[in-house]
Amino acid sequence: MPDWTSEAEVQLDAEALLKLTHALMGVYIWEWFLTVDFDWELITGKRPFRWPIAFYFANRYLLFFAIIGILISFDTTTKLNCQAIYVFNQLAGNACVGLASINLSLRTLAVYGNSKLLAIILVIAILGHWSLILQAGVLLRAVWSDQSNQCIIVYTNNTILAATLIYTMVFDLLVFLLNAHKLFPRKGNIGYMGGSRLGRLLFGDGLVYFFIAFLSNLLATVFMLLNLNSIMTVIFNVPAAIASTIVACRVVRRLSTFTNEGPEMLNAVSETQLYRKSRMPSVLQATSARNHSGAGVHVQMETYTHSEAIVEHGSASNHTGIDLGLHCDGTKVRSEYDVEAKAIAL
Hints:
It is built from nine helices and six strands, in the order H-H-H-H-E-E-H-H-H-H-E-E-E-E-H. By secondary structure, it is of the alpha+beta class.
């Protein structure tokens, strides 16, 4: 077991942090080059620009400048204003984590059909999160050292920083559980969203993104609370910010790309269950009558089939459309719940 507080160990950890940050900068630049075409399509108007995309851009590019600032503070040998650059790095890094949580929250809200109650809960959680993030400027004090020819940190407030990381971890866990609850197939049926392409998209890899964001912040929180030394306390803060930003931006891009293929219409009942019950055109009528005349609820459900040519693996597929009408005392009400269109609305 090494002596974490020894000068030699701290120096070794500092070198590891420097190399790790440079490597992560390369990873993030590679990620940016792979996906910059999406940003360009938004800028040139090839893709519709909706207000949540502003959080996507802020998250993506603020982290880019934050990493540059961190590398400058590590690599420079010329005297500079250490306090200013460290405050910027701290604020920008924490803001990136907060923006990543906002992007994940917006996707969660879309899955829940823009629920007003959930929106209020998430807004309150986001405001509480940012009340901690904006205190980052007073968390540390850095000065230039002529002896070591670099910036050194002479004071840090680990209490607020630890509280910020714990809040972020719990927040990411909350949105992960909310998505898992909504998208996980219920026993005995496909579930509310489980049968749609959007549900499969989010459940197949979207939930993995939420879980990665949670794990990255969990790791940073654990090392912050262990408080081994000044370097090991913050060594996973940058990886957590980069991991959270990458997965949050991927969630935004995948859903935005997915919606261009066109929304799916989901009814209040499982399409798959109806499709299994009847593959031929049929009309099912059920009448519940009381002893007195004129009272009752009449439910009429029409199922029709049609063929649609789709070139996929060299074959054509048959698709079934469902039309559900409800008749209550002679009044017809059509109810269709367009879940994926609500995701487009964001």
